[in-house]
Task: inverse folding
C-alpha cells in the first residue's frame, strides 16, 4: 500500500482516485507487488490559501520486486506499506497587484516601510531620494521598528505567517546583521529570541537568545525545555511511545523516567536507550492498528530519501513502558 501523509491539508490523486489527506488522516492507495520494475506516479493538490495559488506536485516512486529503489521525495519503507510525506507547494498569486504598507519607521536619516504584496513582504528603504528594496519572504502580518541595543540603535523587522515567525535586524548601512526563523522569532524584553519546537508530540523547545557584542550578534543563551507551553501527559500509548523516544533523543532523563515503569528507571536512561536502539533522527508510528498494550515504532535517519526504519515494539502497562524489544 501507498500511504500519502502530507505536511498540510491536500488532495492526493493516484490512478484516477482522489482522496483528501492531512498529517492526521493519510490517503491509502493499494499497490501491486509485481516482480518487474514499476514506476508509480501520484499527484498532490494542496488546499487553497489566501494570496497563494496551489501548485500540483507530481511525484514518482520506482519499485523493484515491490520495494522502492528510487524516489523524488522522502519515503519510509515499512515493508507492508510505503509511507510518503510530501510537502504541498504554492506559488505567488501574480494577479494580486495590491500593495499594503504593514508598518513603517524612521531610521538612519530615512524611512523604512514593510510592504505586503501577494502574500510576500518587502522592506523598502527611502533615503535622500533613493530607494532600496530587500525581500523579506512569506508574510501574513508584520511590523518594523527601531530597537536600542545599548551600543547601537538597529532596525528590526518582525513578520509572522502560518507555521512560524521571522526576525530580521538591519544596521545603519541597511545590511542584515541577524536573520532567523522559528515558531517564535521576535524581540523579547529587548533581546532577540527564537523558540523552535524540536519534536512532534512531547513539545520540547529550544530557546536561543542573542546579544550584540563588538558589532555582531552572538548566541548568549541556548537551552531546551518548555517555554511556550507546559509539559503534558500522553493521551494514548501511541503518544507515550513517541514521547519516550523523542525525550531520549534529546537526553531528557527526567522526561524518560516519567514514561517508563518504576523498576526500569534505575538503568533505562536516555543514553542507555540510544545505545540499545542506535542513533536516529525521527521516530514514527507503525501505520497499522495494534492491540492495546503494544506500540510499534520505526526509528529513522535522514541520510537517504528512502528510509528503512529500525523497528521496535514497546509494551505498556497502565500507560508506562515495561519493555522495549526488537520484533
Result:
Amino acid at each position: 500500500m501507498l500511504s500519502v501523509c502530507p505536511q498540510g491539508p491536500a488532495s492526493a490523486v493516484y490512478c484516477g482516485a482522489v482522496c483528501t489527506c492531512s498529517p492526521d488522516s493519510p490517503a491509502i492507495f493499494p499497490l501491486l507487488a509485481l516482480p518487474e520494475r514499476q514506476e508509480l506516479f501520484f499527484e498532490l493538490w494542496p488546499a487553497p490559501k489566501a494570496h497563494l495559488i496551489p501548485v500540483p506536485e507530481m511525484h514518482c516512486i520506482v519499485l523493484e520486486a515491490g520495494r522502492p529503489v528510487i524516489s523524488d521525495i522522502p519515503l519510509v519503507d515499512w515493508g507492508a506499506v510505503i509511507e510518503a510525506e510530501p510537502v504541498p507547494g504554492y506559488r505567488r498569486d501574480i494577479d494580486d497587484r495590491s500593495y499594503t504598507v504593514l508598518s513603517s519607521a524612521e531610521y538612519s536619516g530615512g524611512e523604512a516601510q514593510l510592504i505586503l504584496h501577494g502574500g510576500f513582504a518587502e522592506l523598502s528603504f527611502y533615503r535622500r531620494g533613493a530607494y532600496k528594496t530587500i525581500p523579506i519572504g512569506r508574510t501574513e502580518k508584520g511590523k518594523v521598528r527601531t530597537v536600542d541595543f545599548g551600543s547601537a540603535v538597529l532596525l528590526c523587522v518582525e513578520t509572522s505567517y502560518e507555521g512560524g515567525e521571522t526576525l530580521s535586524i538591519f544596521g545603519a548601512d541597511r545590511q542584515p546583521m541577524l536573520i532567523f526563523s522559528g515558531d517564535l522569532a521576535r524581540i523579547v524584553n529587548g533581546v532577540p529570541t527564537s523558540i523552535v519546537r524540536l519534536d512532534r508530540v512531547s513539545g520540547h523547545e529550544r530557546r536561543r537568545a542573542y546579544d550584540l557584542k563588538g558589532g555582531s550578534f552572538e548566541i548568549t543563551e541556548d537551552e531546551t525545555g518548555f517555554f511556550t507551553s507546559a509539559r503534558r501527559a500522553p493521551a494514548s500509548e501511541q503518544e507515550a511511545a513517541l514521547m519516550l523516544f523523542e525525550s531520549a533523543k534529546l537526553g531528557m532523563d527526567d522526561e524518560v523516567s516519567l514514561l517508563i515503569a518504576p523498576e526500569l528507571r534505575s538503568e533505562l536512561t536516555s543514553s542507555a536507550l540510544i545505545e540499545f536502539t542506535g542513533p536516529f533522527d525521527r521516530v514514527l508510528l507503525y501505520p497499522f492498528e495494534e492491540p492495546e498494550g503494544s506500540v510499534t515504532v520505526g526509528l529513522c535517519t535522514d541520510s537517504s530519501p528512502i528510509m528503512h526504519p529500525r523497528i521496535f515494539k514497546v509494551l505498556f502497562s497502565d500507560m508506562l513502558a515495561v519493555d522495549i524489544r526488537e520484533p
